[in-house]
Amino acid sequence: MRDIPPRRSILLFILLIVGISILLFNDFGKSHSLVIDSILDFGHVPLFCVVTAMVLWVLEWRRWPMTTTRNYILAGAISGGLAVLTEVLQQLTPERSFQVGDIIHDLTGSAVFLLFAYQYKRNLQKRNQLIMIIIAGVLLIIAGIPVLATSIDELRSRKEFPLLASFETWTEMKRWSIEDRNERSPLHATQGQRSLCVNLSPGLYPGVSFNHPPANWQGYDNLSFDVYLDGTVQLPLTVRINDLEHNDEFEDRYNQTFILKPGQNRVSISLSEVEHAPKGRLMDMEHISILCIFSYKLKAQRTVYFDNFRLEKKD
Prior knowledge:
11 strands, single chain, about 20% strand, about 40% helix, alpha+beta, elongated
């Protein structure tokens, strides 16, 4: 009996390690699509199916995937440790961060592989096989729900365009990044039944960020949205817009401050001004990536209601 695996198997194992390392640690750049992001997140499931299969192969390569129950448990534990370790290491690399969701997807992939592989050439009762298959199926469905939800939201967004945001569904909130306390509210809605209520906290840059807007604004003249301001004092709000080519410099984006009066406000922004805002180039209006709205050096909490973000053409 051979004491070491066949050379071809060792070569495949090494290639898999290299490929998995590239997928886990390489920065593939910013994705503008939530659907692509959710698919990449789901990709951790099949990826860790492979990782767990490799760990099990190391534990028992001669009869793989046949081995003892102890080795299956050990493979799951080692794979779980690798899932946590890879996220810790990603925290140390530029543009990557520790994601609990990725660990959950990793553990899901590991569990799915083990549930199916354990049945290989084992005389299990049909009932036990069915239970294991159902558990694996449920895990895959749960892991795939974000992909389905973002795909539905993407279809909704395309159907409603040039309406960019109206806060009528919870799924569209994934497009936004908001650190302050917020909720979808029935108050002060100007389009549909809901607005976005945000309690801006005192700080340097409190606000909201539309990180995944529909990208192609070409052919429209204005960006407009409605804001209701609580209280009796005016509030300066700054609007920032940049495209995918943005180099993170202030001169390479649109930045304009608007003074909100108490009560209902309508903000209208010329897209021609947006296009010509970057110094030394034109903004790529077909690839808008971020719309930020924030207050600068806010001294006291203010409550605002946003609604009806839309692109408009002149009559």
